[in-house]
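Need a sequence for this fold. Nothing fancy.
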């Protein structure tokens, strides 16, 4: 779906980027989605399957916008085997982690590493959203990076750790700008590789 698209150098992309929002249950995935969609806090219930929204997002200077097609997939343990179906052909992954729930960071780390190691997800950029940073007992970015072992992700997987508060939207625009930049860089690299193969 995404790999055949041209690099996003124009103000508007013709096709939305396919972005999958993953993470454990209660991490704040749906809150992230609806903050982006409506620019306000929407009270949510646990996602039983998935939520999907096409959203036009301003990038940095607000002169450029691009469209994202977000798929917010339920994070309960019984639903996690389905994640693979949604990440197939994804342009990027947003992995939401609860910065306050230190007891479940190990579980989040396991799921993050599992999904990024899949053959079809090799090289897909990952935006790790450290949610609930507004709370006093939230883990620092250094603690999050170490506990999630982000440095041990595959060398082919570009990633960015973004502190955020989904309820008020803080950190989300900056995170999406980083994700967009990683996607653009990856597409450029893939195009260069194709050109080299054609020359041989």
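Here you go.
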């Amino acid at each position: 779906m995404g790999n055949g698209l041209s690099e996003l150098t124009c103000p508007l992309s013709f096709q939305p980027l396919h972005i999958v929002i993953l993470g454990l249950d209660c991490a704040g995935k749906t809150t992230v989605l609806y903050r982006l969609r409506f620019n306000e806090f929407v009270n949510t219930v646990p996602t039983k399957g998935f939520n999907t929204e096409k959203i036009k997002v301003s990038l940095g200077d607000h002169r450029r916008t691009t469209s994202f097609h977000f798929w917010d997939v339920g994070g309960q343990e019984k639903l996690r085997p389905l994640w693979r179906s949604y990440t197939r052909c994804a342009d990027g992954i947003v992995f939401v982690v609860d910065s306050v729930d230190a007891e479940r960071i190990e579980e989040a780390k396991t799921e993050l590493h599992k999904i990024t190691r899949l053959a079809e997800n090799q090289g897909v950029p990952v935006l790790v959203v450290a949610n609930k940073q507004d709370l006093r007992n939230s883990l620092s970015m250094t603690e999050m990076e170490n506990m999630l072992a982000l440095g041990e992700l595959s060398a082919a997987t570009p990633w960015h750790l973004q502190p955020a508060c989904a309820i008020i939207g803080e950190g989300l625009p900056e995170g999406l700008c980083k994700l967009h930049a990683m996607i653009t860089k990856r597409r450029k690299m893939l195009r260069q590789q194709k050109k080299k193969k054609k020359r041989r």
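For context: The longest strand covers residues 50-59.
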